[in-house]
Amino acid sequence: MTTILDRIIEVKKTELDQLRSLSFINDGERKKRSFIEKINQANEMNIIAEFKRASPSKGDINPNLNPVEQAQKYAQFGADAISVLTDSSFFKGSFADLQAVREAVDLPILCKDFIIDQVQIDIAKFAGADLILLIAAALEGSKLVELYQYAQSQNLEVLVEIHDEEDLAKAILAKAQLIGINNRNLKTFEVSLGTTENLAPLVTETGAALISESGIKSIEDVSRVQAAGARGILVGETFMTSDDLKGTFGQLKLPLGAVR
Fold this sequence. Notes:
The protein has one domain: Aldolase class I (TIM Barrel), CATH 3.20.20.70. Strand 5, helix 5 and strand 6 form a beta-alpha-beta unit. The protein has an eight-stranded parallel beta barrel, surrounded by eight helices. It has a two-stranded antiparallel ribbon with strand order 2-3. By secondary structure, it is α/β, with parallel strands linked by helices. The protein contains eleven helices and ten strands. Helix 3 crosses helix 4, helix 3 crosses helix 11 and helix 6 packs across helix 7. The protein starts with a helix and ends in an 8-residue tail after the last helix.
């Protein structure tokens, strides 16, 4: 049976030739914005606030929101990093969104996409990303290692996303320093915070910093994933639909160790 992830990856493959035809030059001198250093030194829950217009599971979330204005609010209210969805076919994002956010804020920026080729990493860097996402479920172990090492050679940090123990084995193979547990199954798009609770002990054993992704909406949710060992959370829809961003950040920004 073809899954949503399968469909997304097939579309990505068709986009590669067009991406390789683009011309861009990366400036070798870039300000270093290390999210890994930040999270390892943090005494409160790190928040990666995501700009995401739409998704395959939810449809339109907030398609008309301005990425610059939203990113500036994220920075103002306490985001530690900003994730920008750059996939256009399924999430209505673009690398132009990432570039606009880069010009507007001084936080680490994560390029959130379904990366399967080095050219996507090149474009992410050109647009201003400090981190890229590599989804273990979308890559063979050897390919994940290849892309991970290439990103590092470009002075980019990498968030390796996992959903099960098979994915974790790939992350360990790559010697990932930053591992995100996606509570959303990318094959069915069902969400359960139990995924973080089940996998977190295995992740913390590796020494990697742990991010819990998807399905986090309340202080109770943050407490659950924090109790499991998460040092950071990636939050998209909750911020994209919030009528009180300042208040929402205040609820989710718990001191590390303050489990409720």
